[in-house]
Write a structure and sequence with these properties.
By secondary structure, this protein is mostly helical. It has 12 helices and 3 strands; from the N terminus they run ααβαββααααααααα. Helix 5 (about 85-100) packs across helix 8 (about 125-145). It is globular and about 60 Å long.
Length: about 210
């Protein structure tokens, strides 16, 4: 496929969320948090997780879905470093998004090396690639952060804000308050504060409506 002809089919956000919920229910019926990405990928989907040295320096990412859809390559040093656990879990969920959402795209690209993948990234239309990545990001976020549990955590955060008499501050500076409660919100999901901020905003839970 000539790179300039690459097209990413449009998927509405609500459909991405519905699909992420369905896939989670199917492959993580325990419904426990945090979600065990390695168990889902290796044991339930039968895919390999392959650590590779230097992956991040080559393509500026912690994980990469193999073009034959048989596994996910991860940066070895980050995979072995607990400092990156939150980011890596999201990266695995992101690649899972590509696995479920974009099989047709991968079947038409025929890449067999990271070098060819880098060439693709350099030459593809930026808008099309951004849609491609946005879809995988939204899938990953909803997959790792179920809406129902997130809504409960936001309610708990609001009660705390009310008890501390910070409601007016919330009205005036919702982003600042979100930054202060993000460590509490992210805890059960084991995702980064950046991810949890995006989730509550994209799910329409922030800024919350308060009396």
């Amino acid at each position: 496929m000539p790179y300039k002809k690459f097209k990413c089919k449009w998927i509405y956000r609500k459909d991405l969320y519905k699909y992420a919920d369905e896939i989670r229910s199917k492959y993580w019926p325990e419904n426990l948090l945090p979600i065990d990405m390695e168990k889902i990928i290796e044991l339930r989907l039968g895919l390999d997780i392959e650590p590779m040295r230097g992956l991040y320096s080559m393509i500026d990412t912690e994980a990469w879905l193999k073009m034959d859809l048989t596994g996910i390559v991860v940066d070895h040093d980050r995979y072995m470093n607990e400092k990156f656990i939150n980011r890596l879990r999201f990266s695995l969920a992101h690649e899972l998004g590509h696995y479920f959402l974009h099989k047709d795209v991968y079947s038409n690209l025929f890449f067999n090396s990271l070098e060819i993948w880098k060439e693709f990234l350099t030459n593809v239309f930026e808008a099309e690639y951004k849609d491609f990545e946005w879809q995988a990001d939204e899938f990953a976020g909803r997959f790792l952060v179920p809406y129902d549990v997130l809504a409960i955590k936001v309610k708990e955060a609001i009660e705390y804000i009310k008890q501390k008499k910070l409601v007016e501050y919330l009205r005036q500076e919702p982003d600042a308050v979100l930054s202060s409660v993000a460590p509490f919100l992210r805890k059960p999901f084991v995702v980064s504060e950046q991810v949890i901020k995006i989730r509550v905003q994209n799910e329409g839970l922030w800024p919350p409506k308060v009396i």
